[in-house]
Amino acid sequence: MPNRYVRDELIGIALDQAVLPNLKIHDMPDGVVQPDAYSIQWLQDILDFWYHMVPFSATVDYVTLNAVANQDYILLPTDFILDVRNGYVVETVPGDTTSLRRRERVSLQKFINRQLYHQKTTSATYPSFYCIVGDDATTQQQKLKITPTPSMATQGKLWYYKLPTKLNSNDKPKFPNDYVCIEYVRIRAKEWANIFEPGTAQKFCDKIVAGMKAAGLMNEPEDDEIPMDTLYYHKSRGEFATYAWMGQV
After folding, report:
1. How far apart are the C-alpha atoms of 154 and 142, rounded to whole Å?
2. How far apart are CA 249 and CA 22, in angstroms?
3. Are 67 and 90 in contact (CB under 8 A)?
4. Is 92 part of any domain?
5. Cβ(73)–Cβ(146) under 8 Å?
6. Total structural domains within the chain
7. Which of 163, 134, 146 is nearest to 89 (CA)?
8. Dihedral sign (CA 36, 37, 38, 41)
9. Has residue 122 been placed in a domain?
10. Does a structural domain hold residue 37?
């Protein structure tokens, strides 16, 4: 979703509206935003908060994610926030790039059950289920746990919501509304000057995000209905028949 203003323009508007000469001298002397400006971090803080709390389609990307033979996890990208549901796809025929199939993301409880079910499997060519839990002690990257553990290297990719890189002076933020960014920085400036109580900007943020979600401005590319749990419902058993829930009549 395109925005009208770049980072420094947003900050300049917010500081003008805050009318705090001391802050403007520190952050933007002679009309130039300084590298140590407080408002740079304030703007980045609110963008990162929204990306984490309400991932939306403007930040969706995909990355190659290959499984190593006899290893039950894969390290996720450093900018990973959340996977698109069932967004991990793998080659079900080794070397055939047209054999990609989606794997099912399950809760940790179900993942443990499936892992126990497959614990004696020694010849799996690709995983069937995944769960995101834990991180690497060295890199601190999150882990995508898979089961059954593939006995050979498996090619795949992951669709996910990514954390955008920090804004540079001429970057436009990926966000539905410039006004919200400007107003948040203005309120933070007033908090800095002890004019507003601490937490005022956060309350504004919570209110605005709720309104944006209600208006559909931050829609994410997920199903708009509750999917059937394929671990328990199978087409071959007829549970998808319209009146199957009634049992035999």
Report:
1. 19
2. 79
3. yes
4. yes
5. yes
6. 1
7. 146
8. negative
9. yes
10. no
Neighbouring residues of 146: CB distance < 8 A, sequence distance ≥ 6:
67, 72, 73, 74, 103, 127, 129, 130
Instruction: From first to last of the 249 residues of the chain, give the pLDDT tens digit.
Output: 567 899 999 999 999 999 999 999 999 999 999 999 999 999 999 888 888 877 777 788 999 999 999 999 999 999 999 999 899 999 999 889 899 999 999 999 999 999 999 888 778 889 999 999 989 989 999 999 999 999 999 999 999 999 888 999 999 998 878 998 999 999 999 999 999 999 999 999 888 877 776 666 555 555 656 666 665 555 555 555 556 656 665
Domain limits at 156?
57-163
Element (H, E) at 108: helix 108-117
As separate numbers, helices (DSSP H) first and strands (DSSP E) second, the chain gives 6, 8
Instruction: Identify the residue whose tokens are 């991990």.
Output: 88
217 in a structural domain: no
Contact predicate 126/69, CB 8 Å: no
